[in-house]
C-alpha cells in the first residue's frame, strides 16, 4: 500500500462500518437498539417531505411533534417495495426419452415463499406532512418502526 494510503485493515473496516451506519444526514441523539435510523427532509410546495432510512424495516408511524407537544401525523407514508418476491408460476413441459415412440408429459406448479410482510424493504420510506400544520423548522420527527421503541430525530435547517 502507498505511504499516503490506509495502513491498517482495522481502520478500513471502521471507515466502511461508519459509512454503512447511516445514509441520511439527520440521526437521533441515541440510536434505537437493533439498527441505525436516519432521516432527511425537503420542502416541496406546501408540504414537508421526510425521507426515512429504517434499515429496511417497516415504518409504523411518523409524526412531527410540535413545541407544545402535539403530534401532527403524516398525511401520507410511502413504503418502499420489499426484497424478494412472491407469485405463482405454472409450467408444462414435453420431452422425449432416448427411444423412438417414448414421450413424457409433465406439469408443475411453483408457489413463492415470501408471501406476507415479514421481510425487509429495499429503499427508504417517505412521509409527507402539510407545511401549514407543522410550521417552520426545526422539526422534531418521531418515528415508530416495527419492534422498536419510538425515537425522535431533529430536522434542523440551520444544520444544512
Q: Any descriptors?
A:
160 residues, mainly beta, Immunoglobulin-like, 2 helices
Structure at a glance:
By secondary structure, this protein is mainly β.
Structure description:
The protein is mostly beta strands and 160 residues long. 11% of the residues lie in helices and 39% in strands. The longest helix has 13 residues, at 9-21. The chain has a domain at 24-82 and 120-159: Immunoglobulin-like (Sandwich), CATH 2.60.40. The chain is globular and about 80 Å long. It has two helices and ten strands, in the order αββββββββαββ. A four-stranded antiparallel β-sheet has the order 1-2-8-5. The relative contact order is 0.25. It has helices at 9-21, 131-134, and strands at 38-44, 47-53, 59-65, 71-73, 76-78, 88-96, 103-111, 125-130, 139-145, 151-155.
Major sheet attributes: 4 strands, antiparallel
Principal-axis shape: globular
Summarize model confidence as the mean pLDDT. 76
CATH C-level name of the domain at 24-82 and 120-159: Mainly Beta
Percent in helix: 10-25%
Counted by DSSP, the helix tally is 2
- Sketch the topology as an H/E string, one letter per element: HEEEEEEEEHEE
Strand order of the largest sheet: 1-2-8-5
Q: What is the total tally of β strands? A: 10
Rg result: 24 Å
* pLDDT < 50 stretches: 9-20, 109-117
